[in-house]
Every structure is written in C-alpha cells, then in structure tokens.
Amino acid sequence: MKNFYLMLAYFCVCTVFSCHAQSIIPGKEWKDTEGNPINAHGGGVLFHNGTYYWYGEYKGEHTYRSPGVDWDCYRTDAGGVSCYSSKDLYNWKFEGVVLEPDTVNPHSDIHPTMVIERPKVIYNDKTGKFVMWMHIDNYNYWKAAAGVAVSDSPTGKFTYLGSMHPNGQISRDMTLFKDDDGKAYHIYSSEGNATLYISLLTDDYLNHSGTYTRNFPDKFREAPAIFKRNGKYYMVTSGCSGWDPNEAEYAVAESVLGPWKAVDNPCRGKDADKTFYGQSTFVLPVAGKKDGYIMMFDKWNKTDLIDSRYIWLPIVFNGDIPTIPWMEAWSLEDMGLRLFGKK
Ligand code: GAL
Q1: Does ligand 1 come within 6 angstroms of the Cβ of 242?
Q2: Residues 77 and 69 sit within 8 Å (Cβ to Cβ)
Q3: Which of 113, 66, 127, 74 is nearest to 306 (CA)?
Q4: Distance from first CA to last CA of the chain, Å, rounded?
Q5: What pTM value is reported for the model?
Q6: Pocket lining: 37 vs ligand 1, CB cutoff 6 Å
C-alpha cells in the first residue's frame, strides 16, 4: 500500500512538473521533454558542439501491410526524418521533422507512399554542411536505393538531393561512419541483401568516391552499426529476417574498408540469442569518455510500428572483446561513464 501511495505521488508530481529522466530503461516507452513518445526509429546520433542530435524514422500512426506483397511487409506512411536534441542522453527535446515528406509530388522518393528508413547524419568540417543518408524504397522494397539530403543546421530543414544505386548496386539497410581523419563511409546491405558494401564517400560526403569493398559475401547481414576503439574498428550487424528479431554478430577490422573478421554474438543474458528482441541501428560514442559506447537497438513492433521501442545498452569491454549484457535499467554514472569527463 505504501508503495502504491509513493507511486501515485510520483505520478502526480511528474504530471504537474515535467520529470527529468536520470536513467535509461531499455524497451520501455521513452518520452520526450514534452511527454510524447519519442518517434525516431532506425536512427543514429550526431554529437555536435556539446549537443547530441538523435535522427530517426518518423513513423505514421497507422500501420498496414503493403497490398499485394506476399511477405510480412508491414509499414506506415513515410513521415520523414525526425530530430531530438539532448545534452545528457536521457532527456530529449523534439526538434521537429527535419526532413519533411513531399506530399505534393507523387513521384518523389520521399512521398508518404514510399519508405524512408535508417537515416544517419554526419557533419562535414570542410563544407560546414550536415549530410543525411537514408534508405529509400517503394512500397514493396524493390527500389532499394540510397537517398541523400543536406542542411546548414543540425535541426534542418534538410533539402533532399535525390537517390542512387551506389557503385551500381542496390542499397537497403545502412549506416554512416566518419573516421578521425574526416573520411566518411556509407555501409549498406547490397546484392539482394546478401553482401555488405563499405563505400568511401567523396570529400563533400554527397557522393560515392568509387572506392568500396564487398564484405561478408552471401552472409545476408543487415542493420550495420560501426564504431572505433583503440584504433580497431568494430561492426555489429543483424541477420536478415525483416521486422522479426534474430541473433546479432560483431566483426572486427584494422581498417574500415576491411578485411572484416566475423567473431561472435556480443549480447549476453536473457534473450541474447534474439538480440533481446531488438535489432542494431547505431553505436553512440559518449563524448569525451574513453570506452563509453552505447549500443542502440530498435525493438520493432511490426503491427504497430510507431510503438516500436528503443533498447539502449552500454557496451562492456573485456580487453578487446565487446559484450552487451542485458540490463533492466542503467545510468551513465552506474556504468562509470561520466559525461564530458565531469566528476
Ligand atoms: C528489416 C530492416 C528494417 C526494415 C524491415 C522491413 O530487415 O532491418 O530496417 O527495412 O526489414 O521489413
């Protein structure tokens, strides 16, 4: 009974004054600073001038199956790409839909009838532009292209420039990786999702340079997420089973372009063989913190995609071996990660 009154008091206080989150609860509904569920799926995070920007798929309210498609093709209308900002990684302010869908031109890549997935944004120090790449598809996922957009500010609006089949091949699940030397790479599932391409972008990040490698041929890896630690590159991927979960795998390399060596499932604990019912999307390096890496997974709810949740977990290193142990709730302080190096 006492607990009930405590919870009631907490609820009342939180309703009247907006509550300040101080922990991350994987898989639980995560609300923004206005009290609305965060709608930024398949996303990635950019750290720029002391602020984190979380970009993701802005799912529509209504989930339906694409008509005439014989696989589990659940979708919502493409709502564009959203952005949330935060200084502490717990409390996120909605900055709006920073790449808006084109509701006027029915032939546009970003019309609501299309698919806009896995957007990622990096900053180009030379041009001063924020560059977004994303997976562009049509209702049955046959277009399989990579789209690019650009903005002068991290909170947009982004201008859509167009889509392409990079290096003459299809492109679906994807991420971006910007290395310490300023070179940036587009990593995408290609050749019918069978092979993962890693492609060096041009200096302005708006095109492919022509330098690329084919990785894990015929292994059907998706949902790539890359990070660098102590000069080594790590990549977490999922298998290929649509919205349904499967076992994750990590790989290591001495160079971003490879060769990559697949190692093991990094997940530990209950449901580790199903990636805790999640799928990788991004690894977020905690600014200024050595060994502070957060693994971001989506927990898809295929029949109500807007209610898909986020599973964020710290990556724990044993020497050079990354593991991702399940945790019900955690905070950066618990994990010994102190933001911006503060005590
Ligand atoms: C998954 C992919 C998701 C989405 C889904 C559609 O394999 O990782 O981003 O495209 O398929 O079924």
Answers
A1: yes
A2: no
A3: 74
A4: 38
A5: 0.94
A6: no
Phi-psi sector, 127: left (phi>0), alpha (psi -120 to 50), beta: alpha
Can you tell me the mean pLDDT for 90-102? 98
- Strands 321-325, 267-268: pairing is parallel
Using the mean position of ligand 1's atoms as its centre, give its distance from the Cα of residue 174 in Å.
10
Q: Which residue has the least CA distance to atom 5 on ligand 1?
A: 242
Q: Which residue has the tokens 């990636």?
A: 275
Q: List strands edge to edge, sheet with 309-314.
A: 279-285, 293-299, 309-314
CATH topology of domain 39-336: Tachylectin-2; Chain A (2.115.10)
- In 3D space, the residue among 225, 235, 281 whose CA is nearest the CA of residue 255 turns out to be 235
Tens-digit pLDDT profile for residues 137-187: 999 999 999 999 999 999 999 999 999 999 999 999 999 999 999 999 999
When pLDDT is averaged across residues 272-279 and rounded to a whole number, the result is 98
Domain range annotation of the chain = 39-336
